[in-house]
Design brief:
The complex is a heterodimer of chains A (339) and B (288). Chain A contains twelve helices and no strands. Chain A is an all-alpha fold and 339 residues long. In chain A, 58% of the residues are buried. In chain B, a hairpin with a 5-residue loop joins β4 and β5. The radius of gyration of chain B is 24 Å and the shape is globular. In chain B, 53% of the residues are buried. The chains are: A mainly alpha (339), B alpha+beta (288). The structure holds iron/sulfur cluster (2 copies). One iron/sulfur cluster binds next to α3 of chain B.
Chain lengths: 339, 288
């Protein structure tokens, strides 16, 4: 075995990435926890071994464009349906129509994304073979089945002016089931062994709800005339505030496990989401947001912000699954907390 | 029924990997070299249902030796795992040979009592057999891939060409016919043992005790406890180091344990969304 000690660099007893000695590979300092000089640590630094730095769990096999896109479009559809119901009740026909058509378009696209990820349409039908409460994907398929047609009826009756009463009922129902569509997707990804998703299961639904409202508001600002867009501006503020507050809480509670949300491409996307959402919501609240062009700009920013958020969360999950550090960290801290 | 894999006697011959591939007619994974050890399989996947891990450790615990030259180490110390063996190695050769050890372990699907893969499968394609094992029905699997990130052990995986998922069936076909699984049959050192779980647990407990008596303090069981986060594994292990050194999660929990709470939080979020939108309309009434 002694030959193996000699590396190309000539360093003896040091083979990065090849040792499975505890702490040799994948050892990390906890970020944000600096030791003061000269002070002895009471608790030793968390060290752990890994199998050549290979992941412990499997990262999702889902394609980001499909599933992160699905999360975004589902949120947009659900939020838009809620916005549409309010607009119809308060007599804002243009906003209602824009939101209804937007909801139908978004849910159709999101279903297409889902089917694309599955490979063929027949497989979506297979999803409805059983109803399984333990599987968020099964529950979600049924929620989608309850929501999609209603969103369709709401949009088509509005556009054609036929069957007004049925249209009203469909609008109301799609608002309620739309809220479920927006939030169930958080459970969908949280109910996995992916540390950055699973450990965030308390806050993720609220992040998604806020982001869904903000994106729906964005669509409203973009598509509805300024004279009817007051609720969209309000929804933008509400959505952005909810999203940012929930996200802040999430990162706080995750502690060192929030690292995947801050680092690398995921961090970039998350920061972009924050900037776009804040800019969009603030712009909508300012007088400049009441001009047609200003409203459209704010709306586009909100939509882009929501999309960035979903892709950022997706990427953070992928990173946290690929690095054994996070899997061990999550389980060790769980054990310490006696959970 | 289940597996007990005693890694302390594994010699890394990969007979289990080969037997599994042969019996289950699994496609090849491609000829790739990982460049990290003798392990070129890398891990469990759609086409590798048994995986032998090779861990090179710089631990002054023992040396690789059949135990013939330096005396009789009894039946437990074939691989020179004890401190005495290390010391013996040093004195015999006058050089420090006890600085390094090799751990080998054959990994497999754990057939969890509370199996996350089975819980989250939306089509019911994963099911529990009459032997308590977890099996995928490939004619029903949708290829949604939900079970892949749900498995806390990173076992089940999607096959690239057909999109469906595959994993160890604990040789459902052989077992139904009264035979033992192919890997257990092929293992030359009996590192892989197949049988009723309580019998295996008893045997495993005795083995750990004997190893402890012989001075192998690091020996421990993994996945044997029906009270752990996954309700105990149908395939459990005797390890000689921390689980994560073998690429195993230290304290896995079935992902669906928190599901009721997840749904509650999602429900609250949905109500928050509806309430928020309603409030927006209430406060913008009349204003355009
Ligand atoms: S180890 Fe993973 S694939 Fe095997 S039964 Fe448990 S959850 Fe399922
Ligand atoms: S990939 Fe197949 S086995 Fe896995 S959850 Fe989906 S349908 Fe079930």
């Amino acid at each position: 075995m002694s030959e193996a000690e000699v590396t190309r660099e000539g360093v003896r007893r040091q083979r990065p990435g090849r040792d499975a000695v505890p702490g040799a590979e994948g050892r990390r300092r906890r970020p944000g926890r600096r030791r003061r000089r000269g002070e002895p640590t009471v608790v030793p630094e968390a060290e752990f071994g890994s199998y050549y730095g290979r992941p412990i769990i499997k990262p999702p096999t889902w394609k980001a464009a499909d599933i992160a896109g699905y999360l975004f479009l589902g949120g947009l559809a659900g939020g838009s349906s809620a916005l549409a119901a309010g607009a119809e009740l308060t007599g804002r026909p243009a906003l209602a129509r824009a939101a209804k058509i937007g909801a139908l378009g978004a849910i159709s696209l999101s279903t297409a994304a889902l089917i694309h990820d599955l490979g063929r349409p027949g497989r979506f039908v297979n999803m409805l073979r059983v109803f399984k409460p333990t599987s968020p994907m099964s529950v979600g398929s049924w929620i989608l089945l309850g929501y999609g047609p209603a969103a369709g009826v709401a949009a088509v009756t509005d556009a054609t002016g036929l069957f007004r009463r049925a249209g009203r009922a469909a609008t109301g129902w799609s608002a309620l089931s739309g809220a479920a569509v927006t939030c169930y997707t958080a459970v969908l990804i949280a109910d996995t062994a992916v540390p950055a998703w699973h450990e965030a299961y308390r806050e993720l639904p609220f992040v998604f709800a806020g982001s869904g409202a903000a994106s729906a508001a964005g669509l409203g600002l973009l598509a509805a005339p300024v004279c009817e867009a007051a609720p969209a501006r309000g929804a933008a503020l509400f959505g952005a505030a909810l999203e940012l507050a929930a996200e802040r809480r999430m990162e706080r509670r995750l502690g060192p496990l929030a690292e995947p949300y801050r680092a690398g491409r995921a961090g970039l996307l998350m920061r972009a989401a924050k900037v776009l959402t804040i800019a969009g919501a603030a712009g909508a609240a300012l007088p400049a947001g009441r001009s047609r062009a200003g409203a459209a700009l704010c709306g586009a920013a909100l939509l882009a912000g929501s999309a960035c958020l979903r892709f950022g969360i997706f990427e953070a999950g992928r990173v946290s699954a690929t690095d054994p550090h996070y899997t061990v960290l999550a389980q060790r801290s769980d054990r310490k907390a006696g959970r | 029924m289940g597996f007990f894999t005693d890694t302390s006697v594994c010699i890394g011959c990969k007979a289990c990997e080969v037997a599994c591939k042969e019996w289950n007619a699994l496609p090849e994974d491609g000829l790739t070299f990982t460049g990290m050890s003798y392990d070129n399989t890398g891990g469990l996947g759609a086409n590798s249902w048994r995986h032998v891990a090779f861990i090179e450790q710089r631990k002054p615990l023992g040396f690789q030796d059949p135990g013939l030259e330096y005396g009789d180490y009894g039946d437990v110390d074939l691989l020179g795992l004890t401190a005495e063996a290390a010391a013996a190695g040093q004195t015999a050769n006058g050089e420090d040979r006890g600085e390094f050890r090799w751990l080998m372990a054959s990994d497999v699907c754990k057939h969890c009592t509370h199996a996350a893969c089975l819980d989250v499968c939306p089509t019911g394609s994963l099911f529990r057999t009459e032997y308590g094992t977890v099996v995928v029905q490939e004619d029903i699997c949708n290829g949604c891939g939900y079970c892949v990130p749900a498995c806390p052990y990173g076992v089940i995986d999607q096959r690239q060409d057909d999109g469906r998922v595959w994993k160890c069936t604990l040789c459902y076909d052989r077992v139904s016919d009264g035979m033992e699984p192919a890997c257990a049959k092929a293992c030359p050192t009996d590192s892989i043992q197949y049988g009723p779980l309580d019998e295996l647990r008893e045997r495993a407990a005795r083995r750990v005790e004997r190893l402890h008596e012989a001075g192998v303090e690091d020996a421990r069981l993994y996945g044997h406890d029906p009270g752990d986060g996954v309700g105990g594994d149908g395939a459990f292990f005797l390890l000689l180091d921390e689980p994560e050194v073998y690429g195993l999660p230290p304290d896995p929990v079935v992902t669906t344990r928190d599901l009721p709470s997840m749904w509650r939080h999602a429900g609250a979020a949905a109500l928050t969304l509806l309430g928020g939108i309603a409030t927006v309309y209430a406060t913008t009434r009349g204003r355009r």
